């Protein structure tokens, strides 16, 4: 890993890339760090949003489908409109072990043999998510907090992802509740391992009042079967005394599919929930 990042083009701020960020827990990957407008000229400290599938966040030429989420564009617009606080965004690129790193490990271990087998066939092996979260929490976050002017406390440490990235974001909140204060779980892939993560959440949700969850789902394509699982999760949050609209939001988007273009179109909603003034 180079300690001197590459500087890349971005909207409304500065984008820096650490190539092949080394880890004792997982294979190296690129890490992108977007700094908001005004960062270089001031002394303020900023909340940090950690986002999975980092290659999909900023640039069309490396995004899966040629359509990036446009996190830099959307957050710059929201900040200018007074709808969100400026924040540092850290994008962790995925690897060829994406599904294994993003599948909640404790949920998998408690699942039935058939559910485990279905995931192993899908992901190419058992989960590696506990190691991935150790990378994020014990290696990457301390590096970011040392290298940049962050607000390192729990309310200002946020995490976001889509599909399997939604699962690992929720898992991070449950496994490290003293570290992460908010999670945006977009088109969460509840069907992995036959819904084992829903069963895990029944006993693993962190204490209400100090954590915020955003969930959403579309109705087409891969998103089509998500609604019943999400309704079960909503019931669990309600039973755990999460307050709708305050520390938990679930949104349905009829006609939305499981694509970067759909997530880009509604990105301002989870960003406003996590970073809204």
Strands, helices and their partners?
Blueprint: E1 6-8, E2 13-21, E3 29-36, E4 48-51, H1 71-80, E5 88-92, H2 98-102, H3 105-109, H4 113-123, H5 129-147, E6 157-162, H6 164-175, E7 182-186, H7 196-204, E8 212-218, H8 226-239, E9 248-253, H9 260-265, H10 268-275
Parallel strand pairs: 4-5, 4-6, 6-7, 7-8, 8-9
Antiparallel strand pairs: 1-2, 2-3, 3-5
Describe this structure as you would to a colleague.
With 277 residues, this protein is an alpha/beta fold. It has one domain (6-275): 3-Layer(aba) Sandwich (Rossmann fold). Helix content is 36%, strand content 19%. The protein is built from 10 helices and 9 strands. It has a 9-stranded mixed beta sheet with strand order 1-2-3-5-4-6-7-8-9, with helices on both faces. The longest helix has 19 residues, at 129-147. It is globular and about 55 Å long. The protein starts with 5 loop residues before the first strand and ends with a helix.
Low-confidence blocks of residues: none
What is the name of the CATH class? Alpha Beta
Strand element count = 9
Structure class: alpha/beta
What fraction strand? Answer: 15-25%
Order of helices and strands: EEEEHEHHHHEHEHEHEHH
CATH topology: Rossmann fold
> What is the H level of CATH, i.e. the homologous superfamily?
Alpha/Beta hydrolase fold, catalytic domain
CATH architecture: 3-Layer(aba) Sandwich
């Amino acid at each position: 890993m180079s300690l001197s990042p590459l500087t890349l083009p971005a909207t409304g701020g500065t984008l820096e890339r650490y190539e092949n960020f080394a880890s004792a827990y997982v294979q190296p990957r690129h890490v992108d760090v977007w700094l908001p407008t005004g960062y270089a000229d001031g002394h303020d400290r900023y909340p940090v949003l950690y986002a999975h599938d980092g290659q999909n966040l900023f640039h069309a030429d490396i995004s899966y489908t040629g359509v990036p989420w446009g996190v830099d564009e959307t957050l710059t617009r929201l900040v200018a409109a007074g709808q969100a606080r400026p924040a540092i965004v850290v994008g962790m690129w995925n690897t060829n072990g994406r599904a294994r790193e993003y599948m909640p490990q404790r949920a998998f271990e408690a699942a039935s043999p058939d559910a485990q087998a279905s995931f192993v066939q899908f992901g190419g092996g058992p989960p590696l998510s506990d190691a991935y979260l150790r990378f994020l929490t014990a290696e990457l976050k301390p590096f970011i907090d040392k290298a940049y002017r962050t607000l390192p406390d729990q309310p200002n440490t946020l995490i976001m992802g889509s599909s399997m990235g939604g699962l690992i974001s929720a898992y991070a909140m449950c496994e490290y509740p003293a570290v992460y204060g908010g999670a945006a779980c977009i088109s969460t892939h509840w069907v992995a391992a036959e819904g084992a993560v829903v069963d895990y959440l029944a006993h693993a949700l962190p204490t209400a009042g100090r954590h915020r969850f955003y969930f959403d789902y579309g109705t087409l394509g891969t998103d089509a079967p998500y609604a019943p699982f999400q309704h079960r999760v909503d019931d669990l949050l309600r039973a755990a005394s999460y307050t709708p609209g305050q520390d938990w939001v679930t949104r349905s988007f009829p006609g939305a599919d499981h694509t970067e273009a759909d997530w880009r179109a509604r990105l301002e909603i989870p960003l406003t929930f996590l970073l809204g003034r």
